[in-house]
Queue: 4 jobs
Job 1
Amino acid sequence: MPDLITIQGATSAMRGLSDIPTLEIIDESAKQLEDDQVIVAAFADDAAKAEAQSRGLTVTLIKTEAQYEADKQAAFAAINDVPLDFGGIV
């Protein structure tokens, strides 16, 4: 999985992001800001980040792929450490 990033810029520049094949936009994260600006979270490799920047958009790294995977593994480990109690259902 690529890096977790945010992309911010003018609404018109954001419209073409779906053309970038290695960019996975998290649609539910899209937020309209002031002055015709939009921000969205996405997963992107280096080529996708460079392409977004070449379109005049601001790319901000949130977590590297390694950080994201470590956080995900820690969350799964925490879940696995919780004993199951189905209240007699099972």
Job 2
Amino acid sequence: MVETERQIQTIDFGEEYPGAEIPTIFADGVRNMANSPYIVKFYFYRLDPNVQDSQKAQVRTCAQAVLPIDGFINMYAFFERAIQQLQTQGIVVPEDLQAARKAQVDQWTA
């Protein structure tokens, strides 16, 4: 295997706001993940309500993201910091994280 230099760094994006042409999706979560030594691929899902019965919802895959491993590591660090900030603001409480971690363990071991 070829050793590559990691691209974990702070990046100056050179823009204050993204342009209007950037696609937007709504997702309720991440459905699954696959990886190779070089990339990580995962699918977002959303819960679409049934128009006939408000008690039913359908899980639908709505987008795919593919990142190099370094990009995935950078994204993890970004979200880790975002969760810390949300906790500081009182928006996320430790019980929320515990429940989400348990759900992930249950899903991956099922």
Job 3
Amino acid sequence: MTQNGTVDALDSIRKRLKALHDGRGLSWRVIAQRAEFSDLSHATLRDIAVTGRASASTRRKLGLPPERIRIAADVTAAQRDALHALAAARGMTWSELCRALADGELALTG
């Protein structure tokens, strides 16, 4: 998430890569062999994890739009705090929660 409260679709992929590499100790070459990343080189995956950026063609290979689409998190401070608490209760980061909401995987009611 950026300082102005926006989330990019690539953020969740970056977190997934970091979890596999840093969290599980997998090498970039092993990660590149996984089905979810099979069209990309180990160097490209490392670059995404380190920089959080990807070319339009790489984004397409990941199933993302070729251009960055920003999702505004236009909420009050109280709403933001409540969403942070909800994310933590679900074992998610704020960015993961925003991404899941934007993708329609989650819905807030009431």
Job 4
Amino acid sequence: MKIGKFDSEFDQESLDIQKCLDIWKDVNCMKLLIGGDINFGVSDFVEKDRAKCRVMKYNYHNDVLMFHNSVVPIFKERKSIVHVVHNEIGHFSE
């Protein structure tokens, strides 16, 4: 299934991941943000609460993920962003 920039097959292995540091890879949170629903069993209330609590800090609209007022780029875009910023402020040794 492809939804915007977020690719996932939403398989059981992905759904078993309880905590993921990268919000783009947190399948349950992304499903909630994109407007989907998460089908949990009765015993999965802890994961459901975790995901619902985490997404309260994010907004997803037109393929752009925001954390409060800051854009959260997808992982493959982060390296070039860091490189540009470090070049601008001189953190890369020459």
